[in-house]
Amino acid sequence: MTTREKWLAQMLKIADPVIRNLAQEKLREQIPQEFHADRNCFILLEAFARTANGFAPWLELEGLSGKERELQEEYRRLIRTGIDRATDPVSKDYMDFGQEWGQPLVDVGFLAHAIVRAPQQMFYVLEDPVKKNLVSALKESRKINPCPTNWLFFSAMVETALYVMGEKDYDLTRIDYAVRMFEGWYKGDGVYGDGAEFRWDYYNSYVIQPMYVDILRVMEKETEEYRRLRPVVEERAAKYASVLERMIAPDGTYPILGRSVVYRFGAFQMLGQAALEHLLPTDLKPAQVRCALTAVLDKMTEAETLFDAAGWLRPGI
Question: Is the entire prediction scored with pTM above 0.85?
Answer without folding.
Answer: yes
